[in-house]
Design brief:
transmembrane, ABC transporter permease subunit, 11 helices, mainly alpha, membrane, 0% strand, globular
């Protein structure tokens, strides 16, 4: 609990951290509203949640700052001296980042679907698939935050961690879409963290999706778990 309390104190007293959490809400809602206002038919739930594709970058920045920021200021030495159990330190950082992301994500997703409903009344909020897309989007953002925590622990640098995470999310997906072979393209979309994870937002034509909604979120969970595992091992073995 001391490690968790310490990490929470550092987060809430770090300049700009609260504004980044607010930015997650603003970017998610604005992106979704702009998208759904530009369409009249199709997967309205998915359109209303399009802002998640933008706010995930802010989530990655938050996570990278929580971990990488300490290496930039050499605060990591003080942290590890106060809490010698290094995995506990990484775990506390992950819990704080995931908690902040869950709260800001829940608010942003709730407002996004309400705005979507206001713009397009055909969006039925009580529909099971729509509800799954909504809370699945919150889980998606939380998993992105954990992926970024792990990558930051590996890179030990904020800018490098943000670059790697954004590359995994956006570049990987773009490359997958450019592959000419449809079978290879589908395979890449099934393993790319962004395209696989965002399958959770689909509420229509699920048979045409490269991967099932929960399976896709599971793929992203594996990415997050893998990055945390590698980050934890390196944190244990390397000098601070």
């Amino acid at each position: 609990m001391n490690a968790l309390r310490m990490e929470w104190t550092k987060f809430r007293t770090t300049p700009g951290s609260r504004w980044l959490a607010v930015a997650v809400v603003v970017v998610t809602v604005a992106g979704g509203a702009a998208t759904i206002a530009s369409v009249t038919t199709g997967d309205l739930a998915e359109y209303s949640l399009t802002g998640v594709q933008l706010s995930q970058a802010v989530v990655a920045v938050i996570a990278a700052l929580v971990v990488g920021g300490e290496y930039r200021t050499d605060m990591i030495h003080t942290t590890l001296a106060a809490v010698p159990r290094r995995l506990m330190v990484l775990g506390a950082k992950a819990v704080v980042v995931a908690g902040v992301t869950a709260v800001s994500g829940a608010v942003s997703v709730a407002v996004s679907v309400l705005v979507g409903r206001a713009i397009r009344p055909a969006l039925v909020l009580s529909d099971g698939a729509v509800l799954r897309a909504a809370y699945g989007s919150v889980l998606y953002l939380v998993l992105i935050s954990l992926l970024a925590v792990g990558v930051a622990a590996i890179a030990r640098d904020t800018a490098a961690a943000v670059g790697v995470v954004l590359g995994l999310l956006y570049v990987f997906t773009i490359v997958a879409q450019m592959v000419p072979d449809p079978d290879v393209r589908a395979d890449l979309k099934q393993v790319a963290p962004m395209s696989a994870g965002l399958a959770i937002q689909a509420t229509r034509d699920l048979a045409d999706q490269p991967i099932a909604p929960w399976d896709g979120l599971g793929v992203l969970a594996l990415w997050a778990a893998g990055s945390l595992l590698v980050g934890g091992v390196l944190l244990q073995r390397r000098d601070a």
